[in-house]
Design a protein that fits this description.
alpha/beta, TIM Barrel, Archaeosine Trna-guanine Transglycosylase, Chain: A, domain 2, Nuclear Transport Factor 2, Chain: A, 4 domains, 24 helices
């Protein structure tokens, strides 16, 4: 069971439940050696990790016949097991078949069972990788016949995008949910972050949107935010202990080698207990333990930070900050931005957080690029360095220059034009009372509402209602448009935070009457009408069809198969996600019982 709780672009906070064990994504699964579990299991539990991954092949080779891997490791959270594929890559000579490893993992009660896929190296030829992709697919079919337990079906394809796409399509055809991206460790080791990002997003593009994406071995915290933005949900890593054995300390910006530290240790709740001299003076085993614990702590804290950035819809800003830590991360971010057509489908029209300019890449974010392509004006405009622009120009139809390009003055408060921070820009809190008290200002606001409505719903407000008959309410403090009424009934409210409209009950019904099917609609069966009319949220499993032009966060109208109005609300998922997901909320319902009573 997997559902989306919060999202920003392809980054998402999700809830994955397997065997009644839950992890919240994005999640890091520390790698634990099944026969060297102490003191790591205790540390992992103390730090609050919800899941781990361990090596089933080592258990199999040493003839561990325990009934439950959770009891053996002393960990009651989610346990994923791998199948020996990576050991084959590192050491070679793995003498266990796919069927043996799948059956064995089921016997020890692994929560997530990994098939024995065929590992592809970056230097392998197209023919070799293609053969591996086909064989991995055959093994996946074999595994599905062997067990009905939760399977991880790795996506292979090496350095070949076409084979990544093929592998994803093949694996995705098997009605599975969990897909690790295999063969990326060698790319990570050579700092080829661009190829890792490409492998993840190409895999996502060829899987259903409800697929859980696991980046195998991608365990450095400086890479996490970009991986999450690219669509990865789960990571695993043994880097915390491997780096510690070499005296290497993980940070959010890179790796620090203890031998070269001469002033102060990197800060963390773990290392702050020791001085540099004390740490260097310890025996190797004690020092390794402390550094490894720090590495786990830093990695987990970065995951927590990313979750908070997603909740605040600030992941794009945060990632642009993080990728400045390494030139090849910046290169990988630029690679991600080339997938605009796919990214745009999951990008809301506005966010809680403003756009912070960090460089030329900021202009290539899908939300910004979409606005520029749709509303950018070719004619020259008037440059003003203080916002809101309209308070300086007055109630005049004109074109304004912004850092994003030239736009109609009517969009001066609409995301992201007003909700952005660039060098040299300032916000003027004072407003000109002589402007906002004039009749011309009210006329300007009505024309502005008409323009924004057309931008948001692809139909001008004048096609919905007679503009001469509406009443507008403005803010006494700022003079800005807030509400639109017709015959004393609220139709629409203009949100101060992003300059877009929220539907009221009467407005939603009017919009439904004027917009042709399927525009702005989510279709459900009549059987759940009463459920929705009570104000309950719409879950994705009840969605029959949806307007493909919608985006997460859009105002939507919910109707039955015959296009009868039921309710209205805010889309949580993209159209594709509404159709793919079987769990979680698709539309947040805004209807209220008093609205029904009025009707």
């Amino acid at each position: 069971m997997f559902q989306i709780l919060h999202r920003d672009g392809l980054g998402r906070i999700g809830e994955l439940i397997v065997n009644n064990r839950k992890i919240t994504t994005p999640a890091l699964l520390p790698v634990v050696h099944p026969f060297m579990k102490d003191p790591w299991i205790q540390i992992i539990k103390e730090l609050g990790f919800e899941g781990i991954i361990t090596n089933s092949y080592i258990l199999y080779k040493r003839k561990f016949n325990g009934k439950d891997i959770h009891d053996h490791l002393g960990f009651n959270g989610l346990i994923m097991t791998d199948s020996g594929t990576f050991q084959d890559y590192v050491y070679g000579g793995i003498d266990a078949t796919n069927s043996q490893m799948v059956s064995y993992q089921e016997m020890i009660k692994s929560d997530i069972i990994t098939i024995r896929d065929v590992f592809s190296l970056p230097e392998d030829s197209w023919e070799e990788v293609n053969n591996g992709v086909n064989e991995t697919y055959n093994r996946a079919i074999e595994a599905i016949k062997l067990t009905d337990k939760y399977l991880a079906l790795p996506i292979q394809g090496g350095r070949f995008p076409d084979l990544r796409a093929k592998s994803a399509r093949l694996m995705g055809s098997l009605n599975n949910e969990y897909f690790p991206i295999g063969g990326i460790v060698p790319l990570m080791e050579s700092y080829n972050y661009s190829s890792v990002v490409e492998a993840i997003i190409i895999s996502k593009m060829n899987l259903k949107t409800n697929a859980v994406i696991h980046a195998f071995g991608a365990g450095h915290p400086m890479f996490f935010s970009l991986l999450v933005l690219s669509g990865a949900d789960v990571f695993d890593s043994s880097a915390y202990i491997k780096y510690a054995r070499d005296g290497r300390i993980l940070t959010n910006e890179g790796t620090v080698e203890l031998n070269y530290v001469s002033e102060e240790l990197p800060q963390s709740a773990i290392l702050d207990k020791y001085t540099l001299k004390e740490l260097k003076g310890m025996d190797e085993s004690e020092r390794t333990l402390i550094i490894a614990k720090h590495n786990l702590y830093i990695s987990l804290n970065e995951i927590k930070r990313i979750k908070e950035e997603i909740r605040q819809e600030n992941l794009w800003n945060y990632t642009e900050y993080r990728i400045r830590a390494h030139p090849l991360l910046l290169e990988a971010y630029r690679k991600l931005l080339t997938f605009y057509d796919y990214l745009e489908k999951f990008e809301s029209r506005s966010k809680r957080s403003p756009v912070f300019y960090t460089g030329e890449e900021t202009f290539l974010r899908p939300l910004i690029k979409r606005v520029v392509e749709k509303e950018g004006k070719k004619q020259d405009g008037i440059q003003i360095n203080k916002k809101p622009y309209s308070f300086y120009l007055g109630p005049v139809d004109t074109i304004i220059k912004t850092p994003f390009g030239n736009f109609s003055i009517y969009l001066d408060e609409t995301y992201p034009i007003a909700q952005s921070v660039f060098p040299g820009e300032y916000y003027e809190k004072e407003f000109k009372e002589e402007i906002i008290k004039s009749e011309e200002w009210k006329d300007f606001l009505i024309r502005k509402a008409n323009y924004i409505f057309r931008y948001q719903f692809s139909i001008p407000l004048s096609d919905i209602v007679d503009l001469d008959e509406i009443q507008i309410r403005i803010s006494k403090n700022t003079g800005k448009l807030r509400n639109i009424y017709l015959n004393d009934k609220l139709l629409f409210s203009l949100r101060a935070e992003d300059g877009l409209f929220t539907l009221a009950y009467e407005g939603a019904k009017l919009l439904h009457q004027k917009l042709e099917r399927p525009k702005q609609r989510v279709f459900v069966s009549k059987e759940i009408s009463s459920f929705l009319e009570e104000g309950k949220n719409l879950f994705s499993k009840f969605v029959i069809n949806v307007d493909d032009s919608l985006r997460p966060g859009d105002e939507v109208i919910v109707v039955d198969e015959e296009d009868q109005f039921i309710t209205f609300g805010r889309a949580i998922l993209s159209p594709e996600e509404m159709k793919d997901f079987k769990y979680g909320v698709a539309v947040k319902n805004r209807i209220k019982s008093k609205d029904l009573e009025k009707d």
